[in-house]
Amino acid sequence: MNNTLEMPTLYKRLSNIGLPQKYIQEKALPEWWDTELENDPVAVLEVAGRIAKRLGLDMASVLNPDAPITFKKISSPKFKKTQKSDENRLVVAQGLAARIAEMVTYACKQPFLSLSTDAVEIRDSILEKHTHIDLDAVLNFCWRCGIPVVHFSEFPKGVIKMDGMAAFLNGRPVIVLSSNHKYSAQLLFIILHEIGHIASGHVQDCILIDEKITKEIQDTEENQANDFAKTILFGEPDKYQWGKQSDSIQLARVARQLANKDRVQAGALALNYAWQRNEWNIGVGALKILEPRPNAPVIVNRYLEKGLDWESLDPDSEEYLKFVTGV
Question: How many helices (H) and strands (E) in the chain?
């Protein structure tokens, strides 16, 4: 039995759970670490503790050279996955995202007020302060209610990502987005879907992971969350019965017209067309016309930067959270 913690062995043990050495070196090591410190047992012990804390790993398992490394259990996970997907492939994404959610909920400035269980009421509340239901309006609403939203997608290469995650941690709901979609309407719908899960009581005692939000997943909670999202967007879940659009240009034109009338982001209408008719080429083409320079993840984390009390985090957690969210 070897009780000495050594970096090569630590890298191997981390790699065994889906955290390869390159990822650890690029994302999880503190700024002060130097490879020359690998021969210093005290420094290795210190950096192992930092890695565990940053990545949400069980500290005891990391510090025991003879134990398998595990993620710290914050709350029981509930996986909403595609039919053929193995939920074990989502464990790494869930563990890393849960640690981000834990830090964000701890540092959120605004106390959690409440969240209506009525989607129409939420829509009306948003439109009292904004001209349209769009990404900025919904992010503003979430942070005003004390529901932090963060975009985090810094996962190891090959790890199955998720569209979104909703949880209730440190006395408040939180939404983590991991989708690589850049268009505002795409992240908007994921946020509203997660709001639907929170408002419907689906995450009271668990962390809920949406691998991919689609209408093909036959699940009562997923259907409820989808309908909740569409009701906030449009006022009712099945408001539009789309006829065939000849191309993306026509869809973008129609979406703009309806957006002004119905007070909703035009891109959300283009997505609704693609969702309803399964014509994603036309729908995404319209998004490119409506939002030629998309940067939705950046927008999401701008609100994060303003909404957190960064000084409430310890320096190492602050350093890591800023690094992986790009703020």
Answer: 14, 5
